[in-house]
Write a structure and sequence with these properties.
It contains one helix and ten strands; from the N terminus they run ββββββββββα. β5 and β6 form a beta hairpin. The two termini are 26 Å apart. 7% of the residues lie in helices and 33% in strands. The strands form three sheets. A four-stranded antiparallel beta sheet has the order 5-6-7-8, with no helix packed on it. A three-stranded antiparallel beta sheet has the order 1-10-9, with no helix packed on it. A three-stranded antiparallel beta sheet has the order 2-3-4, with no helix packed on it.
């Protein structure tokens, strides 16, 4: 099965999306951030951001229903946890990428998937992780 969001990484810095006041508690909105489609949701004072394109068939998750911290894809019914992107129910085979989000100076900001730290990469390479051994 093709992963529709496998290559999405940006933006590489914090980017403003919408005014903080434009996303009330329980609200969900789809935005575009430097060419990346992002779903924003606020629940219980927490901000959540994940790829808005469903990893299964590319539908906009922001058009689906959010119940608690789970969003349901409006196309085929895949369900994803907003907190970490894991699949709650298929048919999706790949989790949704989650983006860091914050409220700052009256704006909601997001940034892309962050690369692993140099320390984590070094430890992984030392154990042979990612090599062809």
């Amino acid at each position: 099965m093709v992963n529709r969001v496998a290559a999405t990484t940006g933006p590489s810095r914090w980017v403003r999306t919408v005014a903080d006041a434009d996303l009330p508690d329980g609200g969900t909105i789809g935005v575009e951030v430097e060419g990346r489609k992002v779903l924003l949701h606020r629940a219980g004072g927490q901000l959540y951001a994940l790829d808005n394109l469903c990893s299964h068939a590319g539908a906009l998750l922001s058009r689906g229903q959010v119940d608690g911290c789970v969003v349901t894809c409006p196309l085929h019914g895949s369900r994803f946890d907003l907190r970490d992107g894991h699949i709650v129910r298929g048919p999706a085979h790949h989790p949704q990428p989650v983006l860091p989000a914050r409220a700052r100076n009256g704006w909601i900001e997001v940034r892309g998937s962050q690369p692993r730290s140099r320390t984590a990469r070094s430890r992984g390479e030392a154990r042979g992780v990612g090599s062809n051994r």
